[in-house]
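Preliminary data (for renewal application), adenine complex.
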Amino acid sequence: MRIDILTLFPDMIRPIVGQSILHRAQVDGHVDIHVHDYREYSTDKHRSVDDYPYGGGAGMVLRVEPVVRALRDLDDERQALRILMTPQGIPYSQERARTLAKNERIIILCGHYEGYDERIRDYFDVEISIGDYILTGGEIAAMVVVDSLVRLIPGVLNNEDSAKEDSFSAGLLEYPQYTRPRVFEGRAVPEVLLSGDHGKIEAWRKEQALMRTKKRRPDLYEDYLKRKDNKSR
Ligand code: ADE
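Predicted structure:
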């Protein structure tokens, strides 16, 4: 997969894609991540990328020309899936990450300032929001998307971690985990985990995952029950 990220703040992004699993995924050839400063696509003498809004009002608006020039340079034949980061987009989810991870090429535009010139939207395939809150720009949101989809590319994670992904795919929260010591400040590891009985451990974990999901995320729990119900019909 190739990912191009258009931003006015490449230094916000480079350290993140240069560490840990995102870094290793690039070294191992699973993904090719390019970060572009789209100010470089502005042709006026101040290299401006924003301007005052027509009709007046507070704040600046991102201009359409530098963005479209960047898109034509990187993806003249429109082969990439073009993603616009905005709080007005569709809510991001694990399911959306799974869909995005199937693309060969992705371009992500990170906005800044008060907003985009509305015409920018015509040049994008999908608008994504990572949640109902306003960030100072799209960079952190874009990193959330990149991180969550790169880990889904086959071969990026080892098998153990991939199995974890399967358990979230079931639509439940993770069961509680413990490691040494057996007792810490009076808090003991549940006996069943020390029993060596894999059947019992499995059953306990499933039950814990169900209880935890029901309590913390009743919305996910309802969806899970509905899906299960449909399957058994
Ligand atoms: N840009 C600013 N806030 C955002 C959000 N919540 N999601 C995606 N992009 C954004």
